[in-house]
Amino acid sequence: MKNLTEIKRRYAPPKRLGSSRLLTVLLAAAAGIIVWQLLWMLLKLPGFILPAPAVVWKKFLQVLSNGLLWRHLSFTLLEVLLGLLIGSLSAAMLGYFLSKHPRAENFSSPYLVASQSVPIVAVAPLLVIWFGPGLFSKVLICALTVFFPVLVNTLVGLREVPQDLRELMRSFKASPGQTLRYLELPASLPVFLGGLRVGATLSVIGAIVGKLVGSDRGLGFLINVGRGQYDTALVFVAVLTLMMLAASLYGLILLLESRLLAWQTWRQNT
Hints:
This protein is an all-alpha fold. The chain is built from twelve helices and no strands.
């Protein structure tokens, strides 16, 4: 028991890592606000072009207190999480299938690449027309935005599994499920999580694109309202909230990565 406790203590992720990253983010945010305030003071632009940080903060407190921000943020968050979940799961399953069937990968690669050459902004109106302006079309847009980077990283991660380890699993007569669980999943997980980090931020972009195309709820709709009323402070509030949402998702995946990949620290220290 003592040896086990010592191993956990020695190879656990550093506790200061999360706090140092949080401090860096806070310092970067403070620096951005200072630069913003200096630009506002030097350029002296009208408020509908560049509002002062104090004006945006006042607008933020206003929409927060009356529940407007929470209502639209919750709907956008639902779309982002559903799109991220569906897009990443479907990409991971397809990536695993293609890694086992090279002919299928060669056949589908041109179509996958061609699908990514079309901007999501051009596809979003078609999806809204086909499936309506409801939740399904917005989730689908988010999922399509997430799909390709997670798919590519899944394929790359599975290809990086050493061949000698695959042969070792065959010599033990391991089933495909055992090979996936004990070899392929741990070996490809770092690359997969890297794609998931990219997909998490892209899912927020997908949600906003869907909102800008057509919707009556969400932060994208709030941006449209602020733009129509020349309420630039409201636009800033919505955009900054989106930035915080994307940063939070990115940070959560980093935290998940540090927990799931703690074995790498153990391997490097042994």
